[in-house]
Every structure is written in C-alpha cells, then in structure tokens.
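User: Predict the structure for this protein chain, please.
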Amino acid sequence: MQGVKVLDGGFSTQLVTHVGDIIDGDPLWTARFLATNPKAIIATHLDFLRAGADIILTNTYQASVDGFSKYMNMSEEESLNLFCKAVDYAKEAVNLYQKEIKGEGNVVNKNPLIAGSIGPYGACLHDASEYTGKYCSTVSEKILMDWHRPRISKLIDSGVDMLAIETIPCKREAEALLSLLKEFPKTKAWLSFSCCNDGKNIADGSNFQSIAIKCYKMGLPGQILAIGVNCIAPQSVSSLLKGINGSHKQEFIPLIVYPNSGEKYTVETGWVRKDGGDSLHQFIHEWLNLGVQYIGGCCRTHATDIKKIRIQVDNWQNT
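Assistant: Here is the predicted structure, written as structure tokens:
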C-alpha cells in the first residue's frame, strides 16, 4: 500500500491572510484572484507546502468560462488562459519551496505534486447547490460533460500531475465526469463527493457507498486514485467510509477525506460554527485505519491545520 499523502487545506480560508478581503460572497470566489492578485495565490500555496502538504490543489474550483465571461467580461480564450496561469502559480510555489528546503535532510514533502481542482457545475451557479445537487435533475449528462471538458483539458495540457474532482453532489455528475475522464486515459484523478450529514448519502440522496464503489470500478484501470468525501463535518465522515474496506472479498479501495471545520454554510449567513463542534484532528487515525490514503482539509481549515494533520499522519505511519 502506498504511503498516505497529505493534501492542502481551505484555499479561501488561507488566502484571506494574504489579501485581507472578504472572499465568501463573490460569485467567482477565489478564482477572481487568478487575475487580480497572483502573488497572493502563490503565497497561499507556499503556506500549505511549508505546513507539509504533499499535494496542492490549483485555485480553479470555482473557475469557469461562464463565470469569467459574466463577471470579468473575459473572452473564452482569456478565461481558459487563467486555468493555465493557475497551474503556473502552483508550479512557481513548488519551485520556490524546493529552493527553500534545498540541502535540508528531514523534509517529508521534498517533491510536492499538483492536482488540478475540478469543482462541480453547481459551484458556478453560486447558490450553494454543490451542497444539495438540486441542479442535477435538470442538467443532462451531455451538458455536464461539455461544460467540464474545456476545464479538464486545459488543466491537463498545463501539466498538472492529477485531477482533483471534488465536492460532487450527485450521481449523474459523477458518472458524467468519469465518462469524460476516459477521453484522457493517461490522466489520474480522485473523486470526492459532497455528502449529507446523515452518514449514508451524497447530497442528491444516493447511497454514498454504492455510488462510490460503482464509480471506482467505472474508471479505467489505475485511473482513479481514490474515492471519498470533502467539505463535510468531521464527525460525519467515518460512518460514510466504514465497510468499504472490510473483510469481504471486494478489492481494497483507496479513500480520500478532506473535511471542513465542522461549520455549516449557507448563502445567506455564510459559515456558522455550532458550539461544541469536533476537531478534525481527533479522527485522523480512525480514518487512516479505514483505508484513507489521501487526507487534508477543506473550507475553514488553515495551514496550521495541515501542519497538525502532517504530524498525525507521520506518527501513524511510524507506528
């Protein structure tokens, strides 16, 4: 079994420490800064690398031709060029980091990788539908494939090491993306779902374990790096994962988890923390024992959280 890889954390959360702006509420979210503040993008990537991340994600989760056209008056060519720049900024951060650590012998993430972030169709709608999947019943598989194709193609052409297909709220979009991924047979990807907090289902009500196992098997041999969940409360993760890798005859399925801080998001109120919420760090060893091979943080997690995850993962792997 491969070593566990540590991912980065909530990009917008860490980006705020560099730009001082309120990012939540912007229809382009952090993607706007690809055009307006590249230095802050690079600095944010560096924060996560210095915290011990093995893999950083490009700042493209909410990037789309539609969004850049509508809110920044960009052409399709200009919009797609921002995907190239997002990869360039991540590469620049990796280069700077490797110069910083040159000669140091005890660095665990000497050769960080870059994952191209592919958020769901719902993210561009800016109505939190990536947490409900309400659009999935009205948008066809063909529309979804056609919408995602130029984003995926541009990230691959720009030289990402893998794709991070994330926060997918519905079965239809997951299957559309896996079908699309077969057009790029040399590209590896992980697939993570947006799930309910009931410990059973993804956002559209489909059973998580059934669709997760099906999707893992749908991919070309070796193409799907992991299947899992992101941007979910930490206390809701284990019940979703338990049983996927058990004593039955099914092959081992590598899992991925990068939860949020446990706060709840709505368009009207933003992020709100419930009193007495659990910290994601207390669950890390439990998740690793369930077969998690990729672990990081999502919304409302900082570089300091990734540093704590790094310590926990290293301790687990050394026992």
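Residues 65 and 235 are 36 Å apart (CA to CA).
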